[in-house]
Recover the amino acids of this structure.
């Protein structure tokens, strides 16, 4: 408290809170907006801008997420051992901001669009720049992840426990608030068109706004620099734990001969060098970490809501009446449901289960959470089956498909030469667009245009190229000389039409009746609302698995080992994302619904294994165990003191005898 008085209270206090925490809260909100906003549109950027297939886009997306959960371990070690939390946040935030700017620049198609057709001519430049940007972002966001919350907690004194708890509640509210707003806003920005020479989807703006928010986050944090309490680095417990475990393994291997007696636990081989209390604490941590082994499979499924589920939404109908939902906006349901389900679970569901007399332990909650996640992927698989029924069947690489449309009134006999070729669609239009082309059956040239696209002049008995149009109503202007026809049609999502202007077409007020529309590819008919159940189940699973898992881990670990468990927890997330890479690249299932069912089956199998492990787990009280060791140590210290006291008394007594003998000798010599 004295240190607090001299180091922390020099800054102003508002409503009982150090003013410095307000800078930290704003910093966290902006940083989370930046991260989740960029991540929301990332997989679509890979697919549509970089033109990667679904598997490659999914693999790179999950590699990035995995790195974001590996680098926190590095950030914690750097902050606790060398730079301190403040400098680590500053330096890595700069790296983070540079990465976001690099992503925004990589999405500007005009940089390498030399022929100005809207497609980059040097895709390598954009790929390399985006990969560098993602690596810097992963290093930055992961590196500051373990530092910001802890740095905020450092601003409070021990007697401000209530204020500290309120700060952490507001802090995590900012995380979900930033996530919610960004997943709503950035997909809207992505849906806009921008460009210097040609108008394309504005991924540069969708990445640019998160980059600007990251710069704001950094500036806000620096502005509060003079008000922070900056604790000096005191060493990282993870390094001590790793050294102790390493010594135990090395010492056990050195004494592997049967000549040496066995010890109760393999960690006991570290007793020659390390304190018994530290060894006991590590044993408790290892017991929890052993339970972490099956957990990555949950994150394998959970993080696919930003990849596979978003790609699934691109083939669905996002029309909600007056509101049109973008595929990447469906992720918004996750933070909304989290903010709703957490208080409901804590205040209604869990107490109700307890009243029913069922012992719903943390490990049982986690098991149910894993099962709900598996059920969510079953729902995703069922939805995919419905989507597949509406998809067109395109010819394989060894097949061809030919459509003959007779625009006349009489039968025709058609003979095709051997070298006959025609360009046509070989896939469903992407991003929910509609592919439209016109066929001119008139004897004169026809000029076709709309507000979004100019089809140009179509010569007699020829067709225009396909042009992509958004959903909604479109009015086309059909001109031939001085004659004009206004033709209106409403499109859905992902359809393809060939519009015929027959030879019998006449201009006038009823000209639209003469136009013939041929639907080549049906619009997306499976509604995005069908994804809501799978989002509900995966979020309910997250609340029961993730929130409960952290609570359980913290209750079973010593107070000074929380960081070790946090590192282990984040590692399970990283491993889970790497599993997605393995399955996506090795399995390569031709049907997406089969992949969803495969992941669900794997999680159910892991869920059974985890439930067996949980059944044999014995809950412990780390505080009680530490107290026992402290008591034993106190008793040992007391015994040591007693021995030293007896030794001192013995020495004193011997000294007294020698003193008497000396006095007698002196008297004799004097006599």
């Amino acid at each position: 408290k004295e240190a607090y008085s001299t180091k922390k209270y020099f800054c102003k206090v508002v409503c009982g809170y150090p003013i410095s925490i307000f800078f930290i809260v704003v910093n966290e909100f902006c940083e989370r907006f930046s991260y989740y906003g960029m991540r929301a549109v990332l997989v679509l950027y890979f697919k549509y801008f970089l033109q990667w297939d679904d598997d490659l886009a999914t693999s790179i997306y999950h590699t990035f997420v995995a790195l974001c959960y590996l680098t926190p371990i590095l950030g914690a070690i750097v902050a606790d051992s060398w730079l301190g939390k403040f400098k680590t946040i500053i330096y890595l935030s700069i790296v983070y901001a540079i990465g976001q700017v690099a992503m925004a620049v990589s999405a500007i198609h005009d940089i390498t669009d030399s022929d100005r057709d809207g497609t980059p001519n040097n895709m390598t430049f954009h790929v390399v720049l985006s990969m560098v940007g993602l690596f810097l972002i992963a290093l930055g966001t992961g590196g500051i992840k373990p530092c910001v919350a802890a740095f905020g907690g450092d601003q409070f004194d021990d007697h401000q426990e209530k204020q500290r708890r309120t700060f952490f509640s507001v802090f995590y509210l900012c995380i979900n608030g930033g996530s919610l707003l960004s997943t709503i806003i950035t997909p809207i920005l992505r849906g806009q068109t921008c460009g210097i020479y040609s108008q394309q989807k504005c991924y540069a703006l969708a990445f640019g706004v998160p980059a600007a928010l990251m710069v704001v986050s950094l500036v806000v944090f620096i502005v509060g620099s003079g008000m922070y309490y900056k604790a000096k680095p005191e060493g990282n417990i993870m390094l001590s734990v790793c050294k102790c475990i390493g010594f135990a393994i090395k010492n056990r291997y050195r004494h592997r001969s049967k000549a040496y007696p066995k010890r109760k636990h393999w960690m006991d081989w570290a007793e020659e060098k390390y304190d018994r209390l530290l060894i006991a604490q590590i044993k408790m941590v290892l017991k929890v970490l052993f339970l972490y082994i099956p957990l990555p499979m949950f994150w394998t499924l959970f993080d696919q809501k930003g990849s596979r589920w978003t790609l699934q939404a691109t083939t669905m109908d996002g029309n909600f009446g007056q509101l049109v939902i973008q595929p990447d906006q469906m992720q918004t349901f996750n933070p909304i449901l989290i903010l709703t389900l957490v208080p409901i679970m804590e205040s209604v569901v869990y107490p109700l289960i307890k009243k029913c007399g069922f012992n719903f332990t943390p490990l049982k909650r986690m098991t149910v959470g894993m099962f709900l996640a598996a059920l969510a992927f079953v729902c995703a698989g069922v939805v995919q089956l419905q989507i597949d029924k509406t998809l067109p069947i395109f010819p394989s690489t060894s097949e061809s498909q030919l459509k003959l449309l007779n625009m006349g009134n009489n039968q025709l006999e058609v003979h095709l030469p051997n070298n006959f070729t025609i360009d046509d669609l070989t896939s469903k239009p992407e991003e929910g667009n509609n592919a439209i082309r016109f066929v001119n059956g008139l004897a004169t040239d026809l000029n076709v245009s709309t507000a979004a696209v100019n089809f140009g002049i179509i010569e007699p008995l020829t067709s225009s190229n396909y042009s992509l149009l958004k959903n909604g109503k479109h009015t086309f202007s059909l001109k031939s000389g001085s004659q004009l026809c206004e033709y209106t049609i409403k499109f859905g999502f992902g359809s393809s039409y060939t519009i015929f202007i027959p030879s019998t077409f006449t201009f006038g007020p009823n000209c639209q009746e003469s136009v013939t529309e041929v639907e080549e590819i049906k619009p997306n008919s499976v509604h995005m609302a069908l994804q809501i159940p799978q989002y509900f189940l995966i979020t309910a699973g997250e609340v029961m698995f993730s929130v409960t898992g952290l609570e359980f881990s913290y209750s079973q670990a010593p107070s000074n080992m929380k960081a070790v468990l946090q590192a282990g927890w984040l590692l399970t997330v990283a491993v889970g994302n790497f599993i997605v890479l393995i399955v996506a690249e090795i399995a390569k299932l031709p049907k997406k619904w089969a992949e969803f069912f495969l992941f669900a089956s794997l999680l159910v199998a892991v869920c059974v294994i985890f439930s067996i492990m949980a059944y044999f787990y014995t809950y412990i009280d780390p505080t009680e165990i530490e107290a026992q060791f402290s008591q034993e140590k106190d008793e040992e210290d007391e015994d040591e003191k007693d021995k030293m006291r007896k030794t001192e008394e013995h020495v004193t007594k011997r000294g007294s005898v020698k003193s008497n003998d000396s006095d007698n000798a002196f008297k004799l010599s004097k006599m």
User: Anything to note?
Assistant: Residues 227 and 318 are 48 Å apart (CA to CA).
